C-alpha cells in the first residue's frame, strides 16, 4: 500500500502504520485522515493481520496536533462538520475496529494527536513523550472526541484540569494517570509494541474482537455493556476458536487458532 503521508508494513500478522509528515511533526491534515481511514479499513478486512501498531515518524512527535492552517478561517457550521466527519471517518472508526490497535507514542501527542492515540485500544509511550489537549489556547475545544475519551481514561477532575489549563503532561504522569500502560526508552518503544502484539496474537482473534465490542459498549449511551458481554460470551461457544481453545486446554497443548 502506497500513501502520501503514511508508511505501512505487514509482517507475521503485525501491521505497523507510521504517520510520515516529520517536517510538520506528523500533524493531521485532511489527506492524512483520509489515508488513515483507508488503511484501517483495508487492514480490518485483511484476515492475516492480527494486531496494528500506530506510531509517528522521527523522534519528535507521534502527532503534534491537527493542521490548523486548514481550518483557521472556518465558520461555525464548517467547524461542526469538520468535527463530525473526523470522528466518523477516523476516531470513532478506530475505537470500534475489531483488530487491536496499539498506539506507540514516540514524542508529542497533542490535540488531535492525543485524540487519535486515545481512540486506539491502548497506549504505550517513550520517555520523551509529551501529551496534552491545548485547544482552549486557540479559542476552541477538542473536537475529535477529546472531551469524552480523556475523562473516561483518567477521570473527570484530571481531564478538566488538562483541558482547561492546556498544559502538557510527561509520559510518567500519563502512566500514573492511566493514560498510557507502559513507558520505555525511545529505542525500546517499538520492540515493546511488538512484544505485546506477539502475546495478543497467541490468542483467539474472534474472542478478542468480541471483548473489544463488549468493553466499548460499556461507554456508549443507551447500550447495556453487561448485555453485550452476555451475548458475545454466548456467541463464542459457536466458534471454531472456542472448540480449539477448550480442546487444547483439556489436552494440555497450545491452541492453534484459525
Describe the protein:
The chain is of the alpha/beta class and about 260 residues long. It folds into 2 domains: about 5-200, 2-enoyl-CoA Hydratase, Chain A, domain 1, CATH 3.90.226; about 205-250. Helix content is about 45%, strand content about 15%. It contains 10 helices and 10 strands. The chain has helices at about 30-45, 75-95, 110-120, 145-155, 155-165, 170-175, 185-200, 205-215, 225-235, 240-250; strands at about 5-10, 15-20, 50-55, 60-65, 100-105, 110, 120-125, 130, 170, 180-185. The strands form 2 sheets. It has a 6-stranded mixed sheet, sandwiched between helices. Strands 4-6-8-9 form a 4-stranded mixed sheet. Helix 1 (about 30-45) links the parallel strand 2 (about 15-20) and strand 3 (about 50-55). Helix 2 (about 75-95) packs parallel to helix 3 (about 110-120), helix 3 (about 110-120) packs across helix 4 (about 145-155) and helix 8 (about 205-215) packs antiparallel against helix 9 (about 225-235). It is globular, with a radius of gyration of 19 Å.
Write the layout of secondary structure elements.
Layout: E1 6-11, E2 14-19, H1 30-45, E3 51-56, E4 61-63, H2 76-95, E5 101-105, E6 108-110, H3 112-119, E7 122-126, E8 130-132, H4 146-154, H5 156-165, E9 169-170, H6 171-177, E10 182-184, H7 186-201, H8 205-217, H9 225-236, H10 240-250
Parallel strand pairs: 2-3, 3-5, 4-6, 5-7, 6-8, 7-10
Antiparallel strand pairs: 1-2, 8-9
Helix pairs in contact: 1-2, 2-3, 3-4, 4-5, 8-9
Amino acid at each position: 500500500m502506497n500513501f502520501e503521508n503514511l508508511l505501512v508494513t505487514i509482517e507475521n500478522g503485525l501491521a505497523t502504520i507510521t504517520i510520515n509528515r516529520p517536517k510538520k511533526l506528523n500533524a493531521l491534515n485532511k489527506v492524512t485522515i483520509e489515508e488513515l481511514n483507508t488503511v484501517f479499513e483495508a487492514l480490518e478486512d485483511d484476515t492475516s493481520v492480527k494486531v496494528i501498531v500506530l506510531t509517528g515518524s522521527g523522534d519528535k512527535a507521534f502527532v503534534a496536533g491537527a493542521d490548523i492552517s486548514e481550518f483557521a478561517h472556518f465558520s461555525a457550521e464548517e467547524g461542526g462538520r469538520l468535527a463530525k466527519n473526523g470522528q466518523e471517518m477516523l476516531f470513532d472508526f478506530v475505537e470500534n475496529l475489531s483488530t487491536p490497535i496499539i498506539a506507540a507514542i514516540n514524542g508529542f501527542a497533542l490535540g488531535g494527536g492525543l485524540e487519535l492515540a486515545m481512540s486506539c485500544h491502548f497506549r504505550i509511550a517513550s520517555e520523551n513523550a509529551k501529551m496534552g489537549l491545548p485547544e482552549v489556547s486557540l479559542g476552541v475545544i477538542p473536537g475529535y472526541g477529546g472531551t469524552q475519551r480523556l475523562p473516561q481514561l483518567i477521570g473527570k477532575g484530571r481531564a478538566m484540569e488538562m483541558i482547561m489549563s492546556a498544559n502538557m503532561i510527561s509520559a510518567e504522569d500519563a502512566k500514573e494517570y492511566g493514560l498510557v500502560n507502559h513507558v520505555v526508552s525511545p529505542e525500546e518503544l517499538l520492540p515493546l509494541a511488538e512484544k505485546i502484539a506477539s502475546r495478543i496474537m497467541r490468542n483467539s482473534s474472534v474472542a478478542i474482537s468480541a471483548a473489544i465490542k463488549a468493553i466499548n459498549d460499556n461507554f456508549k449511551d443507551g447500550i447495556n455493556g453487561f448485555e453485550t458481554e452476555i451475548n458475545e460470551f454466548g456467541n463464542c461457544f459457536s466458534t471454531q476458536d472456542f472448540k480449539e481453545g477448550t480442546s487444547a486446554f483439556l489436552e494440555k497443548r497450545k491452541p492453534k487458532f484459525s
